[in-house]
Structures are given as C-alpha cells and as structure tokens.
C-alpha cells in the first residue's frame, strides 16, 4: 500500500479521499488554488500545496503543477477524484512517466472512452446496444444537419469529449439546429478543449440507468449493481438511487453483463461507470462510460457495504478484489440528493455568495453527508456550486424516501440561494414515490416542484419577530456587560419608558411587500400585533441559532439566522426569508433601468447582435459563461441595442450592465 498520496482535486471528493486514506493509514497531500487557500480539504490533509491562480486552467487543470507537487511532497500516487483531469489520458501517462501511480484506469482505457464517437464504435464491436445516431469524423454543419434529418427529430447534439451534462442540446426544430450546434460547440470547446460533436436520436421519456463496474489487475471485472439517475436538470443529475426501482433480476443481469463487456473491451482497471438509457419497453442502449469514480458512488457503497475509494487505492497498489462479490445481492435502498447553490426559480441559475449559516442533520448508519464546505465559506464563481451530498439508506425504497425527507428538513442554509426546497418537493412528490422516473421528470413536474415564495403563516411571522427581538436583547446584554456601567438604564433592551408600556414596531419586507408589526414590551416577553390580532410571544434564542418560541400559547421551534437585515427562519424543512427594513435608511441607489444585466459573475463569450440593431422581445443578445455553463441573455422587450458595454472575453460581475437597451417606445 502507498505511504502517501496526492489528491489532485478539491471540494467534497478531496475530503472524502482524505478521510478514507487516513483510516487506511495513508498520508495525504492536498492541492489548492488561490481561491481555495482556506478550503476544508486544505485544512483536513496532512500537507497542502499551492498550485496556481483561481481559474481551473491555471491550477487544477495544470498537469505540470500537480506532478511537481506530488514529487516535491514525496507522494507515490495521485488520486484524481472526478472532474478536472480524472479522465485525461495525457495526465495518466504523465504520472507514469514521472514515476507516480495514477489511481484510475490505464491511459489507453481512458483514451478509448474519451471520445464518445470512438467509444460507441468500440461498443458496437463488443455487442453492446447503441442508440441510433451519427458518430463520424465529418463535422461540417451541412453534414451534421443532414444526419439529424436522417435520424429524425428530436435529436441530441452532444460534445464528443463531454461529460457531466456539459455540451448538450436537445433540438426538436430543424430551423434551430445550426444555432444550437454553434452553442454546443462553444460550450464543448470551453469545457473540454474540443468542439467535435455527435448526433443521436433523442428517446422519449427514457430512464438514465448506470452500472458500477470494478476491475482489478488480476483479470477480475464485475458489476456492483445499477443506479437510477433519471432525476436531472440541464442533463445533470440531481437525485440518484440504488438499486434502480423496478429492475427485475433478468434485466439487471443483462445490463450488468453488458457493462462488464464494455469494461473488458478496453482493458479496464479500477472503478468506472457504464451509463445506459433504458426505454419503457425494457430495451437499453449504451450512452457512455465514465472512466472514473462518480459523484453518486455513495449509494452503491450503502447497498454493497464496500468503500469504493478504499478499493481504488488497493487495486491501484496491485491488490486483487475480494472474493465473493460475484454472489452479492443489493442490501436495502439508498438515495442521494445533491445540494446546490442555485436558484430553481431562475432556471437553476448558480448562486455565488457566503454560507452565513450551514447546518446538516445528524449522521449515522442511515444518513451520510459528503461536503467540502463549512459555515462561513464562500461559494465562488470558478468551480461547481455543489454544497453537499445528502445520502440516506433504508430497508426498502419507502423507508429511504422517508429518511431523505427528514434529512432535507433538518438541513439549513442561509446567505445564498439553494435547491433545498426543490429537493424536498421531489422527495415528497407522488410520482417520485411511485417510481415514475425518466429524464423528463423535472420538466414535466416543474410547476409543482419549483419552490415559490408564499405568504407567511402568522405563527411563522411571530417567530421571525421574536427571533429579531431576542437577538437584539442578547446584543444589548453583551454590550452592557462590557460597558463602564453595566446597570445603566440605557443598556436595558426592553424599550422602557416612565409611566407607560413600552411600544415599538418592526418593519419587514416579504417578496417586496412591506409589513409593519407593532409590539409591546412585557416583563416576561412581548405582545405582537400580527395581522390576525395581538398574541403573546416568549422564548429563547441559543448562540447557534436555535429558536424556542411560544406564540399565542403554542410552543414551536425553528432555526433562526439574522445577518445584515436578512432573516432566515427554518421551520419544518422550509426556509422562510424576510428582510428587516431600516425605517431611516441612508440614500439608496435606483435600480438600473434601460439595460440588460449579468445575472452572476462570468465571462462574455459571444455577442449575438451589434450596437444599433433593432431586436424583438426574447431575442438573444449576449452569451456569457459562468459556473462552466453558458447562459444566454435576451432582450426584455421590443426595442434597440444602444450600446454593448463589454467585449468578448471580459470578466464581468453580477449586476454589470452588459447591454444598454432602449424599448420600442423610447427608441427614436
């Protein structure tokens, strides 16, 4: 076994490898970019080395810097995690040339599956069924359009070197083919360094079912069962589960055999995943093979009892897989939910900002949390916005769903938009409970899944007000304790006045609507003038934000966070957000009018119109790249582009006015 390894990655996978290596007695070396100097994986590793600036191309994608860090630190092997260089055959070869063990498959196997077109040709030779499509070398627009016509719409344009949902477009209208092809190529070039694409038939309501394979260097290759990853948005997985619901033993056996045949065809070693599309008639088709560990590997670990990271290390060190795995059967059911910093109400736009408050459920034999962040960390623009993975296990699928819902209800995040409410809506949806799964699940149920802000119930409003008042009391008491006269009446936070009850009011904002809550200070609490009438309010607020409240004689508890006027109240798994309005604010700034603004930090990659051009409402104006994805900004109304403010390649901040725009009424 190795004495020391370097982890060429960041975030939760780096933390996961560090934990496993430590349990095995293996030393760890972390690497970090300038943006990750204070990251969790850096703090957890035995040693950490800087490798470059924040952009991934200058740090985590710098093979030379990674190999130099490994050699200088005395590491014997490099674990690539997933993403970045984990499926880069040149990097695997460079490791070998430097005398380092690449903890992954041979470079030849990575290269064989690195191009989707070449991989599908190999799979056809191995007898693995394929989706009808075009995987050829001719990449002219006219040739690709003709192939799309031959295959029949709708078709899927997919980056040949892609993965992780990047570089993919579904095209239903031939008139949109050329534009969508250009967008796919730009995204593919930015993400993978190649703009080659393939065209495939887009199947109606297929399931995404993948098989975990593992092979050692002694000739053994086996299937560790399948995972259903059909719950996706933007072709990226959101919820995964193992085993796949509704899989009869015969179908499981056939898919497992096909996956093993695919792995053997390329001389595979280590952990890998063979991904299939499964149609409603039980036919399955090879989609791609990920020659690495997958983000969703914990659900397989739960149902097999194996630590896949441990066996990655053991196999890379030359050990054989344990005997008896061929006869194993899935144990129970596991589900993983990916917690992202993103806004489902804004088409899952990635969010950037601080994690002012972060609380996870208690872990144990039924609940596991894989995360690479801590309270106070910041989700930045340079890397994937995943906060954590919540993984649960149950004796059967209904038990696992119950535990997933409970784990999500106990998860609290404030300071940044997240998809917690969206995940909870999926976990509680009748179609999910009935295992009515396919890749169109989210699009089909979007209206019932997307979290929408509604009016607060009176008890929740009362708890929010009580939390503010208790926070003020604690702050005043702390200030008084450090004052020259801690018993001064000016330090008493009860609004006291002579010969009368003390009155006050809280001015709140909810979804842009103002609400005034009058209040009276009492000796043992407060009286709150809620819209439905006056109620008593008493309680306590702990230092870690646990609010115990009695509102109108009914006891309730919640998580409470108040930062810079923003209030987050977590009740029953639902986050309620309000703003405490300063009645005497300083002069503010008017919202930008007459312009199209950047929705987040990013880079301008294309201008789709010229200054002075007339445009229609919804017409694409600018394409920007952020969080490894392209985002198209469109005209808000009929009008004219007055000015384009940033050139292609410019790095812009959230809120930057990219295009000065005149509506049709204002245009000359």
Describe the protein's topology.
Elements: E1 4-7, H1 11-24, E2 27-33, H2 40-44, E3 47-52, H3 63-73, E4 77-79, H4 89-97, E5 101-102, H5 107-114, H6 116-125, E6 133-134, H7 141-151, E7 155-159, E8 168-171, H8 177-192, E9 197-201, E10 207-215, E11 221-233, E12 236-242, H9 249-265, E13 270-278, E14 284-290, H10 297-304, H11 308-316, E15 333-340, E16 342-343, E17 349-350, E18 353-354, E19 357-359, E20 367-371, E21 378-379, E22 386-394, H12 397-409, E23 412-414, H13 420-427, H14 430-433, H15 441-444, H16 446-449, H17 458-481, E24 502-510, E25 513-522, E26 525-530, E27 533-541, E28 546-551, E29 554-563, E30 566-571, E31 574-580, E32 595-597, E33 602-607, E34 614-615, E35 620-626, E36 629-634, E37 639-644, E38 651-652, E39 657-663
Parallel strand pairs: 1-2, 1-4, 2-3, 4-5
Antiparallel strand pairs: 6-9, 7-8, 7-9, 10-11, 10-13, 11-12, 12-15, 13-14, 15-22, 16-17, 18-21, 19-23, 20-22, 24-25, 24-31, 25-26, 26-27, 27-28, 28-29, 29-30, 30-31, 32-39, 33-35, 33-38, 34-37, 35-36, 37-39
Helix pairs in contact: 4-5, 12-13
């Amino acid at each position: 076994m190795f004495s020391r390894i370097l982890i060429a990655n960041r975030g939760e996978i780096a933390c996961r490898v560090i934990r496993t290596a430590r349990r095995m007695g293996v030393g760890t070396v972390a690497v970090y970019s300038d943006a990750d100097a204070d990251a969790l994986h850096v703090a957890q590793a035995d040693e950490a080395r800087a490798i470059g600036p924040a952009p991934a191309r200058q740090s985590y994608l710098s093979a030379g810097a990674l190999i130099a860090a490994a050699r200088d630190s005395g590491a014997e092997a490099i674990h690539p995690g997933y993403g970045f260089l984990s499926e880069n055959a040149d990097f695997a070869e460079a490791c070998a040339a430097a005398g380092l063990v690449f903890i992954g498959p041979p470079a030849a196997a990575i290269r064989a599956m690195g191009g989707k077109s070449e991989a599908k040709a190999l799979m056809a030779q191995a007898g693995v069924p394929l989706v009808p499509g075009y995987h050829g070398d001719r990449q002219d627009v006219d040739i690709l359009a003709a192939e799309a016509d031959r295959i029949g719409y709708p078709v899927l344009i997919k980056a040949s070197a892609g993965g992780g949902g990047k570089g993919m477009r579904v095209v239903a209208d031939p008139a949109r083919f050329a534009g969508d092809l250009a967008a796919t190529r730009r995204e593919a070039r930015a993400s993978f360094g190649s703009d080659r694409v393939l065209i495939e038939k887009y199947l109606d309501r297929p399931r995404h079912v993948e098989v975990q394979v593992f092979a050692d260097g002694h000739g053994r290759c086996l299937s560790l069962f399948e995972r259903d990853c059909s719950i996706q948005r933007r072709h990226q997985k959101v919820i995964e589960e193992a085993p796949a619901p509704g899989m009869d033993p015969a179908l499981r056996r056939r898919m497992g055999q096909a996956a093993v045949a695919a792995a053997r065809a390329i001389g595979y070693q280590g952990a890998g995943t063979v991904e299939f599309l499964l149609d409603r008639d039980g036919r399955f088709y090879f989609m791609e093979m990920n020659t690495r560990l997958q983000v969703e590997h914990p659900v397989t670990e739960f149902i097999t009892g194996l630590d896949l990271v441990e066996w990655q290390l053991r196999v890379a060190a030359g050990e054989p897989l344990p005997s008896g795995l061929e006869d194993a059967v899935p144990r129970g059911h596991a589900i993983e939910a990916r917690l992202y910093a993103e806004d489902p109400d804004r088409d899952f736009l990635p969010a950037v900002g601080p994690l002012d408050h972060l609380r996870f459920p208690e872990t144990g034999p039924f609940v596991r949390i894989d995360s690479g962040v801590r309270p106070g960390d910041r989700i930045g623009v340079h890397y994937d916005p995943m906060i954590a993975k919540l993984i649960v296990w149950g004796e059967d699928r209904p038990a696992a769903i119950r535990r997933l819902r409970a784990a999500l209800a106990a998860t609290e995040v404030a300071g940044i938009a997240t998809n917690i409410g969206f995940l909870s809506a999926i976990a509680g949806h009748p179609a999910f409970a009935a295992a009515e799964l396919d890749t169109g699940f989210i699009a089909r149920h979007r209206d019932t899944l997307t979290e929408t802000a509604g009016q607060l119930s009176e008890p929740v409003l009362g708890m929010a007000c009580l939390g503010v008042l208790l926070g003020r009391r604690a702050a005043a008491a702390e200030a008084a304790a450090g004052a020259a006269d801690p018993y001064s009446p000016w330090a008493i936070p009860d609004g006291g006045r002579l010969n009368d009850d003390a009155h006050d009011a809280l001015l709140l904002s909810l979804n842009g609507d103002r609400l005034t809550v009058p209040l009276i200070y009492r000796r043992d609490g407060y009286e709150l003038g809620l819209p439905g009438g006056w109620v008593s309010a008493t309680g306590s607020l702990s230092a870690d934000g646990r609010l115990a409240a009695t509102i109108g004689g009914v006891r309730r508890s919640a998580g409470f966070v108040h930062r810079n006027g923003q209030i987050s109240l977590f009740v029953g798994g639902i986050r309620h957000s309000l703003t405490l309005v300063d009645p005497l604010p300083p002069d503010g700034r008017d919202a930008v009018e007459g312009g199209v603004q950047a929705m987040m930090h990013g880079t301008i990659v294309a201008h789709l119109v010229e200054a002075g051009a007339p445009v229609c409402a919804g017409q694409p104006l600018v394409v920007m790249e952020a969080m490894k994805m392209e985002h198209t900004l469109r005209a808000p109304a009929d009008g004219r582009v007055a000015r384009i403010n940033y050139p292609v390649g410019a790095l812009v901040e959230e809120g930057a006015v990219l295009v000065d725009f005149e509506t049709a009424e204002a245009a000359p």
